[in-house]
TrEMBL record:
Lineage summary: Eukaryota, Sar, Alveolata, Dinophyceae, Peridiniales
Species in which this protein is naturally found: Zooxanthella nutricula
Name of the protein: DUF3089 domain-containing protein
Pfam families registered for this protein in UniProt: DUF3089 (PF11288)
Superkingdom, taxonomy of origin: Eukaryota
Length: 366
């Protein structure tokens, strides 16, 4: 349906700990899915939060997915542009949010815990855009634009941008709370995100870091994975923040995706992307993407590939007694399996996942 902000819940209050999926002030053991600040491999707990020299602002990827929504299809709860955080307790929308938040906690545990040996992690809960907005509606809109259509579009572009703007507004307020807190005024920080998180952080970099000298002086790096980061940002809107070329680069950006530039799906991935350009607004991504090796930290087509021996393995927040490699095996694609997509599609309740440590996992042949 048409975009209606009144159906998107309430803005999270970032003065409250519950508005953060990860926060260094949350004590260990308080949640079933342990806060990413406290997760480590068995016998290798991360340093105390007060001993970490840097801060990390992490924006989680899209967890308001089709699988989470399927049990709510008979209700209007599933038919929303944005996750209705703050929905009335006891309502179907509240049940949906509770279920999605569990997945968001899992994704933050998976994506942000790698920073907890050097950083205090701050990951906001936000009214993220639904997967339909991130994929289906975006693809329809871009197809129409490429065909030279203006009106009528298959889906009103203004409504898609309103959806993205609302999600970004929450991320922006959380970042301002994070970066302007007097107790953290001089601390260095990194930005990190995946998929939709990267979409919002690309805009945040331009609006809240590039033209803020004091923030820029504290900014170390942005790790922007899993979504299109246009290479021409660095000639059009980012002049002080540069693409990463070496592991020691600061005030820089790295970005990577799980397919190479010459992969058959590369153009599809790139052409479904949109990006924010300061002074221009949302624009289709049509040119080259920033591509960085997350092992060597070199960017661009001339970067030398890394040797398989440089890969150090992977750790995963594996819930006790609920291994997705077993419960989801063969039921859904691997990326969906890691979100328990087959299982969550069968219930309105959160799964009750319990995570206390990171477990080594085999990612297969390299």
């Amino acid at each position: 349906g048409s975009f209606d902000a009144s159906r998107c819940g309430a803005p999270p209050d970032y003065d409250q700990l519950d508005a953060w999926l990860a926060h260094p002030d949350r004590p260990a053991g308080l949640r079933d899915v342990e806060d990413a600040n406290h997760l480590g491999a068995a016998g290798a707990a991360p340093p105390p939060v007060d001993a970490r020299a840097c801060d990390c602002f992490f924006v989680v990827d899209t967890c308001f997915n089709a699988a989470e929504s399927i049990p709510f299809v008979p209700d209007s709860a599933a038919r929303r542009w944005n996750l209705p955080v703050g929905a009335e307790e006891g309502s179907a929308a509240h049940q949906l949010v509770d279920k999605v938040v569990e997945q968001m906690e899992m994704r933050v545990a998976a994506g942000a815990s790698c920073f907890n040996r050097s950083c205090r992690i701050y990951a906001p809960l936000y009214r993220q855009a639904s997967i339909l907005a991130m994929t289906t509606h975006t693809a329809m809109l871009l197809a129409a634009l490429k065909a030279g259509k203006t009106r009528p579009l298959p889906w009103p572009s203004e409504e898609l941008w309103q959806c993205f703007d609302l999600a970004y507004g929450d991320v922006l307020r959380a970042f301002e709370k994070f970066v302007d807190d007097p107790s953290r005024a001089d601390r260095p920080f990194i930005l990190a995100g995946h998929s939709q998180g990267t979409l919002h952080l690309v805009r945040l970099l331009q609006e809240q870091v590039e033209n803020h000298p004091r923030r820029r002086a504290r900014f170390v790096h942005a790790y922007l994975a899993g979504y299109a980061v246009p290479a021409d940002l660095f000639s059009r809107t980012l002049r002080h923040v540069l693409p990463c070329a070496h592991a020691a680069d600061v005030r820089s950006v790295s970005s990577w995706n799980t397919l190479p530039q010459d992969h058959a799906g590369h153009d599809l991935f790139r052409n479904m992307g949109v990006a924010w350009y300061s002074g221009e607004g949302w624009r289709p991504v049509t040119g080259e993407l920033l591509a960085t090796s997350p092992i060597t930290w070199a960017s661009g087509p001339g970067a030398a590939p890394s040797a398989p021996s440089e890969y150090k393995g992977a750790l995963w927040p594996m819930p006790a007694g609920c291994d997705p490699r077993e419960s989801e095996s063969g039921a859904v694609p691997s990326g969906v399996a890691l979100r328990y997509g087959h299982t969550v599609a069968r219930s309105r309740q959160r799964l009750g996942l319990r995570v206390r440590e990171l477990v080594p996992v085999d990612c297969g042949e390299l």
